[in-house]
Amino acid sequence: MRPYELLIGLRYTRAKRRNHFISFISLISMIGIALGIVVLIVVLSVMNGFQKELRTRILGVASHVEISQFDGTLTQWPAVAEAAKRNAQVEAAAPYVMAQGMVSFDHGVQGTLIRGILPVLENEVVELGKQMKLGRLDNLRPGEFGIVLGIDLARSLGAGMGSKITVIAPQGQVTPAGILPRLKQFTVVGVFEAGMSVYDSGLALVHMDDAAKLYRMEDKVSGVRLKIKDLYLAPRVSRELAASLPGDYYVRDWTQQNANFFRAVQMEKTVMFVIMFFIVAVAAFNIVSTLVMVVTDKQADIAILRTLGASPGSIMKILIVQGTVIGVIGTLIGVAGGVLLAANIDVVVPFIERLFGMHFLAKDVYYISELPSDVQTSDVVAIGSVSFLLSLLATLYPSWRASKINPAEALRYE
After folding, report:
1. What is the 3-state composition of the chain as percent helix, strand, coil, each rounded to the nearest 5?
2. Distance between CA 337 and CA 30 in Å, rounded?
3. Which stretches of 257-345 are assigned E, i.e. beta strand?
4. Dihedrals φ, ψ of 57, to 5°?
5. 16: which DSSP letter?
6. What pLDDT score was predicted for residue 131?
7. Burial class of 356 by CB neighbour count within 10 A (0 to 12, 13 to 18, 19+)
8. N or C, where is the chain less crowded by C-beta within 10 Å?
9. Do the beta carbons of residue 103 and residue 170 sit within 8 Å?
10. How far is CA 83 from CA 71, 93, 194, 242, in A?
């Protein structure tokens, strides 16, 4: 592109037009692109924030990788843990016993999952110790039959610290009176809050030795839980462990355990991107109407340029410059505004809530009561690039139409 084409295109962009309506449409196009980009960046950042927050809460209780056998039990777990730790990505390993059961207190009965753990090793695998609301995970000691309840499970039972609750195992025991369920009394020594309903209302923790006695596991466990350095490498690590461990083991990672949930979140994010993208597309194609009116308004100018020796390609480039400037300015304003708003969403949203006396995410309804935000560079670059490309494409037809103007016809009535 030669300098005069660029200079004339920029001059047309800055010059005061005789038709102020064209200037107004140009401004609206620019504002539309900027607002569309702001909304798109903020929406994707908030959804990224939700995804990150939920992943953090899930992995606060669930492990990165689990190793078990296909019958749901595992023998000689120390050897399996040591073999898994030979992988450079594995940081820690902890055994567990997982079984279904019922807990009863006073007149309340609730079905739940009973997880037997070794508190010291468990704290190395997940951050459950940081989520304790009452008591400590270390209060679980072998032979004392203590139990740690999820906060919603404790509320539904009406149990508190020191309460004596009955754990009912589904496996029965044969007696002269017939088959009776196995019962054991446990003392509540702690309450945790993971922030996920599936755990807070359906999980109870006991010491692994106590769980093994209750469910007659003897020297077996349900499996081994692993923590790895980079949680996003969990699928690769699980495949490596499945191939390297001697024997037949069932290895699964956190993406498989919560596959449907994260797939739904990703699908929702994609759909929201497409919907919000159309806002930017509509604003970008407003440039078409702006340049069509510019061509109509400046037919005489274009004809004069043609008579002075400007080629059809040069006329086309001049109009492309003018339309591109509108798109670039709108894109830059939108990207800057979107990043600024998304990065300060924790300040803006509370201000709006105080201003209108409302709360977007009520604490008694939602586990995440604040809008999280995670601005990802890849999203910002993708949004800015696509918006610029749409703006550029929108200039092609009006520019081509301007290049086809016949100078003699345009100057006939001048």
Report:
1. 55, 20, 25
2. 13
3. none
4. -70, -40
5. P
6. 86
7. exposed
8. C
9. no
10. 20, 10, 30, 11
Q: Which pLDDT score is estimated for 1?
A: 47
Virtual torsion, Cα 153, 159, 160, 166, nearest 10 deg? -100
Instruction: Write out the DSSP string of 376-403.
Output: -HHHHHHHHHHHHHHHHHHTHHHHHHHH
Whole-angstrom distance, CA of residue 315 vs CA of residue 307: 12
φ and ψ at residue 215, rounded to 5 degrees: -100, 10
CB-facing half-sphere around the CA of 265: CA atoms within 13 A: 16
CA distance 208 to 215: 10
CB-based contact 303:411 (threshold 8 Å): yes
| pLDDT for residue 383 | 87
Say how far apart CA 154 and CA 190 lie, in whole Å.
10
Domain ranges, ordered by start, for the chain: 3-56+261-411, 65-254
Query: ∠ CA 10-14-20 to the nearest 5 degrees?
Result: 130
d(CA 9, CA 21): 19
Which residue in the block uniquely carries the two structure tokens 């699928």?
235
Neighbours of 66 (CB within 10 A): 22
Among 144, 186, 191, 147, smallest CA distance to 166 is for 186
Please provide the distance, in angstroms rounded to a whole number, between the alpha carbons at the two ends of the chain: 30
Calpha distance 103→157 (Å, rounded): 8
Question: Cα separations (Å) of 411 from 262, 307, 308, 406?
Answer: 64, 10, 13, 9
Contacts of residue 225, Cβ cutoff 8 Å, sequence gap at least 6: 63, 65, 66, 93, 94, 95, 96, 122, 125, 126
Contact 208, 99 (CB under 8 A): no
DSSP string, 239-267: HHHHHHSSS--EEEEHHHHTHHHHHHHHH
Rounded Cα–Cα distance for residues 331 and 394 (Å): 14
Which residues fall within 8 angstroms of residue 76, CB to CB, at 6 or more apart?
none
- pTM (predicted TM-score): 0.69
The DSSP string of 72-83 is: S-BSSHHHHHHH
Mean pLDDT of successive 10-residue stretches along the chain, which has 414 residues: 65 58 73 87 86 77 87 87 90 92 88 92 86 90 92 91 90 63 90 84 92 88 91 87 85 81 76 78 76 71 74 79 83 91 84 76 60 86 86 82 71 60
